[in-house]
């Protein structure tokens, strides 16, 4: 195997750590190994004990190496969304020799200019997303390399995160014995993998419901425009079950996974199951309805708070609806509950890769796909704030022509397509061709403009 063709996505979660090993052959990405071990040293998505987290990461990578037959030396790591900031940025440089063609060094210089102004000391750049380049009076340029001019400008968005959180992630991963290829905000990677082109274009809400926290992200105009976190997740549902039914956390987790239903209206009171109650010698019978009411009460709180945040950001009512992912998203009837809460179309994303057909693997797979899909320009820009990112050779540069706007009549949505299990109150039309401007007049805040 060619080392350069191997990518490893590392999802450091609160309840489990997952590593997805994939190989790219002729542009096709194939999963060749998976590691999945219980997490340690992580609370609410944040690393709080570097030593314990590093050991858990190492166990996960060891398992992935055994299954894939590949020695893992570097990984693409997902960052939690806590205190992530998305801000507009721009930079401009003068081109000294107008006869010389713009090259990688010019791209790097204008990127440095764009991210260097007004960056607080306590924050670190995670990504710089170029929306367009401008050369003199010409705008809308996707890749300016090979062109000539007197002035080069970059307009885009910069994603930053707290240095403390990022440092802990870096330290734990390197202490586990591997280097970091890229640090990627999880929602950004998931948006590129989970959503179709038209969903990314028109606007979709992505809810990642994990064990330690729940993340709401908005993808619009093919960019991550908004992200926020609720610091409750599947663990809190387990604790509620344990407390109400007076059973151990281990048994509560098993009960949740085996008998749990998110929507109490869909539960059947006559369906009963045994529960090991602390202090009693014999299991007690509990009905499905009671368990569903416990689960729904916590989910109502989580989804309600996320709805309030999205409402404040004027992000509800988008054509793409809501897509659920994360481990909690596997719970039966969650899509129905979320549809009632938000009043929007809701579907659950399930990866279609063999052995990964569970929402909890979505992030690890998305990290791999994100890394393999980076353009040459994106890779060049990443070298500005990531010393480990490879710089494309000058011979590999290819001028990317802006796509021509096209539109076709919407096709009816299908109940299941490409690994997506769908629930909706109404059929959601799909847009076969991506349009750069869609004509919808949403009342977004400035960060959606």
From TrEMBL:
GO biological process, one term: cell division
Domain SHS2: 7-194
Keyword vocabulary terms for this entry: Cell cycle, Cell division, Cell membrane, Membrane
Superkingdom of origin organism: Bacteria
Position of the signal peptide: none
Annotated localization: Cell membrane
Biased composition (Polar residues): 394-407
The keyword Membrane appears for this protein: yes
A Pfam family it matches: FtsA
SMART domains the record matches: FtsA
Bias type Basic residues, positions: 424-438
Membrane-topology annotation of the record: Peripheral membrane protein
Family membership noted in the UniProt record: Belongs to the FtsA/MreB family.
Complex formation: Self-interacts. Interacts with FtsZ.
Role description: Cell division protein that is involved in the assembly of the Z ring. May serve as a membrane anchor for the Z ring.
PANTHER family with a match to the protein in the record: CELL DIVISION PROTEIN FTSA, CELL DIVISION PROTEIN FTSA-RELATED
Protein name, entry field: Cell division protein FtsA
Species of origin: Fructilactobacillus myrtifloralis
Protein encoded by which gene: ftsA
């Amino acid at each position: 195997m060619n080392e350069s063709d191997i990518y490893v996505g590392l999802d450091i979660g609160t309840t489990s750590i997952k590593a997805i090993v994939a190989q790219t052959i002729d542009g096709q990405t194939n999963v060749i190994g998976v590691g999945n071990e219980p997490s340690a040293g992580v609370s609410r998505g944040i690393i709080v004990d570097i030593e314990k987290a590093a050991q858990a990461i190492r166990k996960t990578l060891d398992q992935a190496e055994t299954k894939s037959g590949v020695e893992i030396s570097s990984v693409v790591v997902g960052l939690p969304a806590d205190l992530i900031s998305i801000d507009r940025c721009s930079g401009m440089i003068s081109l000294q020799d107008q006869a010389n063609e713009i090259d990688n060094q010019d791209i790097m210089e204008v990127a440095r200019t764009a991210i260097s102004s007004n960056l607080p000391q306590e924050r670190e750049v995670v990504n710089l997303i170029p929306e367009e380049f401008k050369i003199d009076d010409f705008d809308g340029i996707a890749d300016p390399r090979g062109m000539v001019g007197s002035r080069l400008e970059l307009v885009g968005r910069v994603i930053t995160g707290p240095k403390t959180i990022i440092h802990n992630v870096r330290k734990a991963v390197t202490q586990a014995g591997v280097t970091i290829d890229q640090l990627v905000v999880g929602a950004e990677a998931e948006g590129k993998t989970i959503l179709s082109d038209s969903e990314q274009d028109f606007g979709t809400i992505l809810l990642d419901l994990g064990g330690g926290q729940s993340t709401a992200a908005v993808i619009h105009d093919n960019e991550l425009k908004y992200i926020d976190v609720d610091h409750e997740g599947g663990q809190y549902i387990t604790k509620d079950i344990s407390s109400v039914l007076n059973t151990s956390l281990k048994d509560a987790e098993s009960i949740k996974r085996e008998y749990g239903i998110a929507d109490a209206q869909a539960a059947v009171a006559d369906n009963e199951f045994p529960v090991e109650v602390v202090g009693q010698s014999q299991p007690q019978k509990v009905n499905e309805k009671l368990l569903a009411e416990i689960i729904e009460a916590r989910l109502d709180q989580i989804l309600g708070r996320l709805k309030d945040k999205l409402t404040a950001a004027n992000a509800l009512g988008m054509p793409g609806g809501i897509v659920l992912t994360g481990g909690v998203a596997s719970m039966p009837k969650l899509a129905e509950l979320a549809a009632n809460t938000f009043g929007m179309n809701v579907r659950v994303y399930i990866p279609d890769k063999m052995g990964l057909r569970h929402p909890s693997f979505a992030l690890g797979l998305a990290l791999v796909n994100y890394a393999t899909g980076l353009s040459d320009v994106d890779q060049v820009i990443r070298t500005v704030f990531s010393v480990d990112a490879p710089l494309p050779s000058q011979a590999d540069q290819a001028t990317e022509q802006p796509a021509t706007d096209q539109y076709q009549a919407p096709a009816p949505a299908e109940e299941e397509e490409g690994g997506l299990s769908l629930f909706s109150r109404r059929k959601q039309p799909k847009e076969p061709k991506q349009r750069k401007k869609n004509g919808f007049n949403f009342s977004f805040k400035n960060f959606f403009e």
